[in-house]
Design a protein that fits this description.
The protein is built from 12 helices and 2 strands. With 295 residues, the protein is mainly alpha-helical.
Length: 295
């Protein structure tokens, strides 16, 4: 390979002629020292190992939580109605309503667990596909990790049933929920380029951070489970609707053409999230208390 340029030729009436200078170009492989290349490979393997371990934990948490939740639903909850609703359990009044609707407790339990499992399965499949095709990309790795974690710990009644059955898992599960919350904010507000653009989108991240104390301070006023059902619907619809609005704004005014192609996956993810909310919205509006809570 060579480097070429044009120069004036004073002996030829000022005409320009092509000057060829031999200058071999370095191959891209020569630019990366062997030690750095080896370190990159090791970091890649570590990232894959962490992802696989957390994915396995997520699946195990969901399956075990569903088993414990099914067991707990069979027994009428004797706690205060808001506490029963926060844990996805049925009060005596809830059981009576189900009976009037022609549903048994078993039917309700199976429908609820099937809905949770279908939503979790969709998240897990999409996250796994992203990881399988783009595991070497940092943003794709974080996105896929968010999706597979949300598949396992995104349904509050399931993880609460697990921690009731095995109290020792309380802090580890809440720590995973906190990690997933951080990843969710990063995913929705920075996809696909990994940057908060425009800068004012950081405000949505701050709102999400305010929700994090609810993981470790369940009796705090920040715990959405203790809000009125109509307020939960308004807040969740406004928040997720705003996330969708941010994506539309970024798509039209911020992202490049190639990034716009990647953003189409985000709309699929947002759609899944909205499905999860819509499935549970009727329970928020039950009077005097909801049966299932979204968190």
């Amino acid at each position: 390979s060579c480097k070429c340029h044009w120069a004036s030729d004073n002996t030829a009436g000022g005409k320009k002629r092509k000057i060829v200078t031999e200058q071999p170009l370095r191959q891209s492989a020569d630019r990366i020292p062997p030690a750095a290349a080896h370190a990159n490979i090791q970091r890649g393997r570590l990232a894959e190992g962490v992802w696989l371990a957390l994915a396995l934990v997520s699946v195990s948490v969901h399956i075990a939580g569903c088993i414990f939740l099914y067991r707990d639903i069979q027994r009428a909850c004797t706690l205060l109605p808001p506490d029963c609703a926060a844990q996805g359990l049925l009060t005596v009044e809830n059981v009576r309503r189900l009976t009037r609707l022609g549903w048994s407790v078993d039917h309700y339990s199976l429908w609820l667990l099937a809905a949770f499992s279908v939503i979790a399965g969709l998240y897990f499949v999409v996250g796994t596909l992203i990881f399988a095709h783009r595991s070497h990309n940092r943003n794709a790795w974080l996105t896929s990790l968010y999706l597979v974690l949300y598949a396992g710990i995104g349904r509050a009644p399931v993880i609460q049933a697990l921690t009731r059955g095995i109290p020792e898992l309380g802090w580890p599960i809440e720590s995973l929920s906190l990690l997933n919350g951080v990843l969710s904010i990063f995913f929705f507000l920075t996809f696909p380029n990994g940057r908060f653009l425009p800068r004012w989108t950081l405000l949505f991240g701050l709102w999400g951070i305010v929700r994090f104390p609810a993981h470790f301070l369940p009796d705090s006023p920040l715990n959405i489970n203790y809000w009125p059902g109509w307020l939960i619907v308004i807040v969740l619809a406004s928040f997720y609707g705003s996330l969708l609005g941010v994506q539309i704004y970024r798509y039209r005014y911020v992202l490049t053409r190639s990034e716009r192609q990647q953003t189409k996956w985000v709309f699929f993810g947002v759609t899944l999230t909205m499905i999860g909310i819509i499935v549970q919205l009727p329970f928020f509006l039950l009077d005097p208390q909801p049966v299932v809570v979204f968190s």
